[in-house]
Structures are given as C-alpha cells and as structure tokens.
Amino acid sequence: MIIETEKIHRQKDIQNELEELGRGYGSIEALHQRVSVDKCGSPFFVDDYILWRALRTEGCEYIEKIEIDTPEIFADLSPRRLELLEYVRMHDVKSITDLAGQLNRNYKNVYDDLSALQKWGLVTLSRRGKDKKPVSQVETMKVTFRR
Amino acid sequence: MRITKERIWVHKNEVLDSIEVLEGNKIQFFSYTYKVLSEGSWVPLVRFDNWEIGPHFDKYDENGSLLEQKPCPKKSLKQVAGLVKEFRKNLLTMDISAL
Asked: What are B7's strand-pairing partners?
C-alpha cells in the first residue's frame, strides 16, 4: 500500500520558506560561498541553494510531495491522527495550545499526535515563541494498492 | 519555473529525497538523494544530480563523506526510486554506472 500526498505552496508559504532559509544561512550569497568552498561535502547545501535561488524567481510554482511506501507508517497513522491532520489543514491554528483548546483535548496528547505526523513530514511544527505552530504539509492524500 | 520537492519513504529510517527545477518542460536541475537516518540525522549514501558537471552519481560513506563521483546517464526520479527500492543499501557496493 502506498500513500501519496501533495501540497501546492501559496505565495505566503514560499515567503515563509525563504525566511527559514534566511534564518539558517544568513544570505543566499553566504550559502553560495559555502557551496563553492565545500564542493564535495554535504549535498544538502547544494539542494538548499538551488531551492533558494529558484524560490526567488517571480511567479514560481512550488509543489511538495510525499510518498510513503512502507507499512511502518500505519503504526503512527491512526484514524484520530488523520482527523487531526485534516483539522490542521482546514483551520487557522496558531499554536499547539490553540489547537488543543479548539479540539478540547489534552495538550500532551495533541503534541504526541502531531509529533507522530511530523516524523513522516505530514505536518511541520514551527517555533512561535514558547509554543509551536502546526502546519499541514498535505493538501491531498491518495492511498493505492501496489500493482 | 516549477519546483518539485519530493520525499519517498522506503523504510521508516530510509528516504529518497528529490528536487527538480523545471523551466517550461526542461529540467534545469535535479537531485535524487538516498539517505538513511543515523543517530537522529539524515546521512546521504547515494545521490544522482546534474550540479556543475552534468548528470553523475555520488557515493558517500556512513559519515556522509564523499567516496566516489562518476558521470552516468541522466535518470528520472521514477528510475532512481525503482533502483533504491530494489537494491537499497546494496547500492553502495554496486557499480552504479552500469545500472
């Protein structure tokens, strides 16, 4: 069984990604220098540099996909967690505390569920002061049986 | 310009990460990196990309240090995903240029 997800990023998401890269590397020039100096080193710098350069292009289209081709996902993907994922996708959630409040659920249980989803890249938890903001990385999800 | 980033999970501790940058229908840049999770960090083992020297593959050791770099015919994500799913960690000991 294969799970495939897709998210088409909006301009706001692209802006957030650019800001995240900026926080990580300082500037694109600094990253470029790191890539040039460390040619044979970490390929992650090259990928981040290419991504950063491309995302700066006006009108670019940015799509993120996840394919999960291992049954181990089902240890983490309970019906409740799928509902949570859908809720985060559909609602404006400011933080985990806010989400727990909206769902009238215990903070720790919500945190544990989000952490399980985060492990597979289905949500991201970006720091917002003392709390974290959950963001769904999934717009569509498809489950197919192996051919 | 169209950017597609994809993560393919082949095992709970193994992924194939891909980035493709397309201008129209032409791929400007691609990278497909097979990584394993080791002590909380993703470590690259095998990578196909066209950065700087055209299509080639890189092999890394378990610490993520480059071991080998050789040109090879361009492969699609589907082809690389097929190789990774079939051979996984054995890719490190195989002659990838012959695949």
From this structure: A66, B17
Q: What is the pLDDT of residues B12-53, one digit of tens each?
A: 999 999 999 999 989 999 999 999 999 899 999 999 999 888
Range of the domain at B41: 2-89
End-to-end, the C-alpha distance of chain B in Å comes to 31
Backbone φ, ψ for residue A47 (5° rounding): -60, -45
Q: ipTM of the predicted structure?
A: 0.92
- Which residue, among A3, A18, A38, A47, would best test binding to B if mutated, counting the most B CBs under 10 Å from its CB? A47
Q: Does A82 score more than 90 pLDDT? A: yes
Count of structural domains, chain B? 1
- Selecting from A42, A59, A67 the residue whose C-beta is nearest the C-beta of B6 gives A67
| A65-144 CATH fold | Arc Repressor Mutant, subunit A (1.10.10)
Cα dihedral A72→B45→B47→A52 (10° resolution) = 80
pLDDT-based confidence at A105, cuts 50/70/90?
very high
